[in-house]
Design goal:
Length: 435
């Protein structure tokens, strides 16, 4: 039997090698994963041209995955630095890398990624079109927009963000219901501007069937972009966001009719108390398709700390049904992240993902925490460092303020509750004062 996409295989009852590998990582039977993929509730982004891919599945019933955004910009063109960040992200356990390059030889960089990087590779072809064609935005033709999508598919990209939901109808609703921060999605703002200047329908919406044919041919997972994702708390859950989401729900069904795998992109900025309802609406409207969130950032006031505002929202979102977290770094809203920012962003995102996995009862998720707690109880510092999400930082902190008593730490010293409880329960005398 032959198949085109992972979804096509799953629907024919075929367990692909990618399903076997991904299911093993989840600790679930491959047949169970095949079932989720057939229903569209999980995806394995795996372009047939991406030969070195180490596949992972994404779905709300699976471990929460994280994505790291990288790539060159006009103000930051160092390709070697970006490749270094890619290696750093893979070593730190990021399952996915999105190449958002918007300067220089973007194709060479993209091809290098799909030839050498084992992580899932995602792109946003809209950005690349602007760089690739070297001409004013309004002069890019519908055919050229579609050609870029095909080029990315040929280059082995596993998933693509396509801002297809901002069609004429959504754009009209957006203009009639003004918001505080308009459209903050980079791709969304580009395609909205193109529509306004040319008077034409969104080419990705108009020619959606052609996009689906490309995705089916190469097995590219469609990441349906949310041009109207809220860019501030005041815009969360407004008419534009919900209008676009309804369109994405319809487009999900059409993709599934062609066996194209789909994930849905989501907010954005959102008050903490709206996140759960938002995740439920998405799951209902998009029939359980995996939800990919950028944050959500739960407050707008923390530039420099937005890895924290995003991790708070991401943990809640993932515990309520989101499957895939796009990392946010401390540099968000300020500049392109450097290596240190990338590290902090990945760690914050991994903490959010792990916290959500515990809350949603992913098999074995809390074993790591129990192992850490056992090491803490035993005051086994080497084991604690080994289990840390960031061993280097933990070790550095302890080294910076060494305790008088080796087995405690400088926080409580002789008053170490852990040590004193271990001793008293072992029948020893605990003096504290003169020890
Ligand atoms: S000294 Fe205090 S903080 Fe440090 S290990 Fe003991 S109880 Fe924990």
């Amino acid at each position: 039997m032959t198949y085109t996409t992972q979804m096509h295989a799953a629907r024919q009852g075929i367990i692909t090698p990618e399903m076997e590998i991904a299911a093993k990582k989840e600790g679930i039977p491959a047949e169970e994963l095949r079932h989720y993929i057939a229903e569209g509730k999980a995806v394995i982004p795996a372009n047939k041209q991406h030969q070195c891919l180490n596949p992972n599945a994404i779905g709300s019933m699976l471990k929460t995955k994280i994505n790291v955004n990288l790539g060159t910009s006009r103000d930051w063109k160092d390709i070697d630095m970006e490749l270094h960040k890619v290696r750093q992200a893979v070593d730190m356990g990021a399952e996915s890398i999105m190449d958002l390059s918007s300067y220089g030889d973007t194709r060479a960089f993209r091809q290098k990624l799909t030839q050498e990087c084992p992580a899932i590779i995602g792109t946003v072809p809209i950005y690349d079109a602007v760089v690739y064609y070297h001409k004013p935005l309004k002069d890019i033709t519908s055919e050229e927009w579609l050609d870029i999508v095909e080029m990315h598919a040929k280059d082995g990209v596993d998933f693509m963000t396509i801002h297809v939901g901002i069609n004429k109808n959504t754009a009209r609703r957006f203009k009639e219901n003004r918001r505080l921060t308009n459209i903050v999605s980079r791709g969304g703002s580009i395609i909205f501007a193109w529509q306004e200047m040319t008077g034409q329908e969104n080419p990705f919406y108009k020619h959606y069937d052609r996009i689906l044919d490309i995705c089916r041919k190469y097995d590219v997972t469609l990441s349906l972009g949310d041009a109207c994702r809220p860019g501030c708390l005041a815009d969360a859950g407004d008419i534009s966001q919900i209008e676009e989401l309804v369109t994405l729900g319809e487009l999900t069904r059409r993709a599934w009719e062609k066996d194209v795998q789909v994930i849905i992109e989501g907010p954005g900025h959102m008050p903490l108390n709206q996140i759960e309802a938002n995740m439920k609406i998405q799951q209902t409207v998009c029939q359980g398709a995996p939800f990919y969130v950028l944050g959500p950032l739960v407050t707008d006031i923390a530039p420099g700390y937005d890895h924290i505002t995003a991790a708070i929202g991401g943990a809640i979102a993932a515990s309520c049904g989101a499957s895939f977290l796009c990392y946010v770094t401390p540099a968000e809203h300020l500049r392109l992240p450097d290596e240190k920012d990338v590290k902090e962003g990945i760690i914050a995102s991994k903490i959010a993902a792990h916290a959500a996995d515990i809350a949603k009862g992913v098999k074995g998720a809390s074993d790591w925490d129990s192992a850490m707690s056992t090491a803490r109880k035993n005051l086994d510092w080497e084991e604690m460092f080994r289990l840390c999400i960031d061993p280097e930082k933990a070790r550095q902190y302890r080294e910076e303020a060494k305790p008088e008593k080796e087995d405690t730490c400088s926080m409580c010293g002789n008053f170490c509750a852990v040590k004193n409880m271990n001793r008293i329960l072992d029948g020893e005398i605990v003096n504290i004062y003169d020890e």
